[in-house]
Amino acid sequence: MNRFPYPTMRDRFDLRAYFVVGPDDTKGRPVADVVAAALRGGATFIQLRAKHADARELTAMAEAIAAGIAQAGKADTVAFVIDDRVDAAWQCRELGIKVDGVHIGQDDMAPEQARALLGPDAIIGLSAETLPHIEAANALPSGAIDYIGAGPLHYTATKPDAAAVEADGTKHALGIAGAQLLCEASRYPVVVGGGVHADDVPALARTAAAGWFVVSAIAAADDPERATRELLQAWTAVRGDARHGVAASTASHPQSDVAAPPQCGAAMFDVKQPHGLPPVLTVAGSDSSGGAGIQADLKTMLANGVFGMSAITSLTAQNTTGVRAVQNADPAILADQIDAVFEDIPPMAVKIGMVSSAALIETIADRLTAHQARNIVLDPVMVATSGAKLIDDDAVTALTTRLFPLATVITPNMPETEALLAQVMQDRTSEDDTESARLLSEGIRTEADMETAARTLAEHFGCAVLVKGGHGVKDANDVLVEPDGTATWFTSPRIDNPNTHGTGCTLSSAIASHLALGETMPQAVRSAKDYLTGALAEQLDLGHGAGPMDHAWRWR
């Protein structure tokens, strides 16, 4: 007989501010104290995780947390579940401790078994990382689960197991667009987490997610109450106080009735941008093989949740083995393309790719200035991986003097970074710049060198600089230095994939897409890197040379 004396919370739980915590997460502070602080900050859902604790230890921790929730006057509004351990949740409920249910992973007890053990009043959450996981959850018997926990939003190199793993073994992070796909596909409300920080929350709030979940962002914070409040305020600033649509009820479910799960997704609330899908313009050349240029840009923009538009700078005849011919556009037709776009569908961001002539660069600069373009992401395609120059000196001068001053961020690889440092040295003939001279002499070899170079370029050109580490040996770490000197590192694994055609186009287009979605510069870079890592990890293999990536990997 179930002696659980509390009304069910299956029909009134709130996923907006979901805090996962255990004894390994709190920097030695008592878990109950950190939970109490999070509750003061507005946490709406608590999950206790303690994989190495036995049932007795878990029960003691759960009792302390439940008491804290009650003392805060939130026993009727804040749901409390235990991670993985159905046995501990059952024991707590048998003892009359207010544990509302359990959250189980893909490798834990089957949801139907958990429901049978805990009864129809318990909340049961299920982890999901991929669309097949969501499809399997949708196929469960009605009422078997109540919500989905999806993640990770971001890949973290220090936790290589913290990644969504596809059926073929490839790993990736969801990113904002991937999270939206899972939310839209799910019958159940979806809370999204994994590497979530405060600057992620506004973009996440614009998806169909029912809320965010975090661990260290609160548990490891010096002030957990303040950290929780800032995360929740970032959410409500976009979404308001709307929840995922579960109607409030004070009556528990009859023992013979397993309630149908609440629905979620776009039908429950308006998750669209106020003025429609954010439009983004790519100004770049055409790649007839589809792996780079405007073809890659438009695929990337679609996959990252924006509406892509294009102004073509050149036509190329190329495939995976090389470029056969190039025909530049006339500057007048390029100007007409840009004007036509801005006069009808003004873009919220602009990506600029390879432009090989000074005349075209001048045209782009004139038209973007005339239209007061914003969020300009410039991929300064200047130097091939081999070190060969791809554009003439007059085009380099036009690029750095006309387009760089308009750019929000430039995204050079390491050879391009070294070429730009040489340009800086020429401009600083009267200055003593021994550090830039050393980098030019010895090359960029270390992460410290990368950051020094990025800082030098940001100071000189007055825009943010993302130095890409893909030409390194051991990893693919990038560094962003903003005009105010703030440096942010982005870590990601090196994917063993020779098919890297279009990586620069893809990354810069993804950054532009996420800036158009309202993300901060660091967040946009992080989302873009997550997307690029997933596209490389898919291991698409086409052509006889360096082939393209799978830009639609999130739908596979």
Question: Can you describe what's shown?
Answer:
It is a single chain. This protein has two domains: 17-268, TIM Barrel (Alpha-Beta Barrel); 279-422 and 498-546, Ribokinase (UDP-N-acetylmuramoyl-L-alanine:D-glutamate ligase). It is an alpha/beta fold. The protein is elongated, with a radius of gyration of 26 Å. The protein has helices at residues 31-41, 55-71, 86-94, 111-118, 131-138, 175-185, 201-205, 216-219, 224-239, 293-303, 331-344, 358-370, 393-403, 414-427, 434-442, 447-461, 503-516, 521-537; strands spanning 17-21, 45-48, 79-83, 101-104, 123-128, 147-150, 164-165, 171-172, 190-193, 211-214, 279-287, 307-319, 322-328, 349-352, 376-378, 409-410, 464-467, 478-481, 487-490. It contains 18 helices and 19 strands. α1 runs parallel beside α2, α1 packs parallel to α9 and α10 (293-303) packs across α17.
- List the strand order in the largest sheet: 13-12-11-14-15-16-17-18-19
Q: What is the rounded distance between the termini?
A: 46 Å
Write down the CATH class of the largest domain: Alpha Beta
Instruction: Tell me the strand percentage band.
Output: 15-25%
Mean pLDDT: 86
Morphology call: elongated
Query: How much helicity do the residues have?
Result: 25-40%
Q: How many individual β-strands? A: 19
In DSSP terms, counting alpha (H) and pi (I) runs of 4 or more, how many helices?
A: 18
Main traits of this protein?
TIM Barrel; UDP-N-acetylmuramoyl-L-alanine:D-glutamate ligase; 2 domains; nine-stranded mixed β-sheet; eight-stranded parallel beta barrel
